[in-house]
Design a protein that fits this description.
Elements lengths: L9 H9 L13 E9 L5 E7 L5 H7 L5 H8 L5 E3 L2 E10 L3 E10 L18 E7 L12
Antiparallel strand pairs: 1-2, 3-4, 4-5, 5-6
Amino acid sequence: MRKLTAFTSPVAVATLFLSGAAFPAHAGPYWNKHIKCEATDPDGRRIPTRLGNGELGWNHFSGKHNIKKCALVNIPLRDKVDKADGHNLQYWGWASDRAHGRVKIIVKARYARRTDDRRYDAGERQVIGVITAYCKGMRKCPNWVNE
């Protein structure tokens, strides 16, 4: 009875790596590109809010910053850009309630195919959209903004 042993030649390994079958060269982190909400600003920019992940998009700010309604994101997006830095845009809006007063909602969006660090790519002819949204001066928005 013969004993078989596994042996991989250096030529076979080199062929595998040179053929490109090993790993993608620059794979970014996983994020869900599905659009949860969408708004168009007065300049005609269509700004999507993608599901994203824990770093950007709906999954980021709905948990971390307690914004759970599309309206809280879309209302500022339907107004003019309040601050622009290249493809990075900020929109400001207000959530108000008679019993609690009002809080400033800040929505940060990226109107480009890729993020600044190039880790995320929305795809051809797409834009990243909303990166984050939060209540100014607070870790989390109060619960009443979601009512």
